[in-house]
Each structure stands twice: as structure tokens, then as C-alpha cells.
Amino acid sequence: MADNTIAVITGAASGIGLAIAHKLSDLKIRLALLDLDEKKLLQIQSELKSETTVFPVDVTIEADVKNVIDAIEKKYGHIEILINSAGITGKTNLKSHETETDNLKKVFDINFMGSYYTSKYVLPVMIKNNYGRILHISSIAGKEGNAGMLAYSASKAAVIAMTKVQGKEYAETGITINSIAPAVIRTALVDAMPESQVEYMTNKIPMKRCGTLQEVADLVAFIVSEQNSFTTGFTYDLSGGRAVY
User: In this predicted structure, what is the pLDDT of residue 208?
Assistant: First the structure.
């Protein structure tokens, strides 16, 4: 990739987003990192190898997302990569009739609407330059539906559907839009789940283990690279053999 490549990463202060930030930084890609945790963002900024700008923002607030993307475009003049990693599981280990409506809406706001807002405002920037790589982080739960995780599974299914729609809509613009569907990746998010929920998910993986953050970051680096130019609207498997479609 060119040295002046700009990548926007949401949820960059921890977990998958942070691992991706380190990977792209090692590749000398300039970063614009978005997250609610300003303190952690500033700490990360001092650790990364490439030029990094941080933007504390709530991705569920459309006006704030627009302002941040406008600021990034004003600073750099272009955006080549968008990676939507901000996400929460919400309350889990609950059957559908036990779920709370407010919690379900919160999960959708972060997991789906946040990705929608960022792509909505980044796409016009990419269209101007006839080039872009957008990656939405979905989940195996969005393909199969995990019992006890209605909000998370449904929101990630919506992300997969958005990926398919956007991939078709922008297929002739030089912009590719894809997603990945990880199974259980060992992150703080997973560590916070009830052990019974983690065991339920891990037992479905033929490799019988969690994926690693490094494995996610390595796959992501390829998906958003210039070399990955003929795949769009696709959801990449990262499930240790659980998903075979």
C-alpha cells in the first residue's frame, strides 16, 4: 500500500480493533482511530509506529460520526480504508422472551447503526477517488444465530446483509465492501461473557479453540489491501471450520 494510505478504525481502543490498528501500523498505514475511550486512544497513539490521529466519538450519534469523518477528510484529503470494529454483545444467555427491549436497541445502535453511519459518510470520500476498502466486522452468530444471543446475532446478521447490499451498490466504483464472521475470538469481550456461553460457542468449533487476535488482524490486512480487488459483498469465514458456506 502507498505510504499515504489512511485507514479509519472504529472500536480501536481494545480487542479486535486494537489488534487491527497494530497490524496496519506495522504496514506503515496512517491511522484515524475512533472509540469512546479517549484515555486509551491517547495511550495507543503513543505506542503505534505510524502516524495516528485519535477521535473520541460515540458511533451511535450520526451527527458526531459525520463531523469526525469530515475532520479526517479535511486533514488528509482522502480515506482509503474503513474498518468497523466497534461492537458489544449486550446481555446474553437469555431466551428471546427474557430479553430487554432497551438492551436490544443498544446492541443494534452500536453493532449495526454505527457501521451504517461510518460507511454512509466515508463512501462519498472514497467515490471521489474511485478507490476504497470497507470492512464490517460481523460474526458467526450473524450466520447461524447463537441461542441466548438474540440481539447480538440479529445485529450481526444485519451487518452481513448491509455488506451484500453495499458490495453490489458500489461494485463499479473501485470500492470493495466485505465483512468477516469470526467465531469466538479471545478478547476482553469474550472474557466478560458467562463461561457457559463461551463453552457453548467454542464446542461448535471443529478446531475446539478460540481464534486469536493475530489471526483476525492478518486476515483483515489482506481484505483491505490493494491486492484484494475482485471480492466484494462477501463475508469471510474465520471460524475454525464451523462455517462451511
Answer: 85
- Find, among 23, 88, 18, the residue nearest to 59 by Cα: 88
Indicate if 116 belongs to the active site. no
Cell digits of residue 27 = 504496514
Distances (CA, A) of 123 to 8, 154, 158, 221: 12, 24, 19, 20
Mean pLDDT of 28-33: 98
Q: State the catalytic residue, choosing from 152, 170, 200, 236.
A: 152
Helix locations, 111-236, DSSP H: 114-129, 140-144, 150-169, 188-191, 195-202, 213-223
- Give the mean pLDDT of 23-34: 97
Place of cell 489491501: 225
For the segment 149-169, what is each residue's pLDDT rounded down to a tens digit?
999 999 999 999 999 999 999
- Residue 125: what residue type? V
Options 3.40.50.720, 3.10.280.10, 3.30.70.20, 2.40.30.200; CATH for 6-183+213-237 is 3.40.50.720
Please give the average per-residue pLDDT across 87-115, as a whole number.
96
Is 136 within 8 Å of 155 (Cβ atoms)?
no
Query: What is residue 141's three-state secondary structure?
Result: helix
